[in-house]
Amino acid sequence: MTKKKDKITGFIGTVTGKAEYYDGRRTQYLVEGIDSTGRPVEWWFDEDRLEDV
User: For residue range 27-40, what is the model confidence (pLDDT) as tens digits?
Assistant: First the structure.
């Protein structure tokens, strides 16, 4: 599994999903991680906002 970090928020997690839109203009990844309270969370991020950890 791939670990990614959002360049804007600093959120770090594991990629568990990918969405490619028919128009071909953007790809998003579902990233699952832990928030500041210790709870599991997941967010969709545009591909260009993510970097490898």
Answer: 999 999 999 999 99
**Structural domain containing residue 21:** 3-52
Into how many domains does the chain fold?
1
In terms of C-beta distances under 8 Å and separation of at least 24 residues, what long-range contacts does 4-8 make, across chains too?
4/29, 4/31, 4/45, 4/50, 4/51, 4/52, 4/53, 5/50, 5/51, 5/52, 5/53, 6/31, 6/43, 6/45, 6/49, 6/50, 7/49, 7/50, 7/51, 8/49
pTM for the full model?
A: 0.88
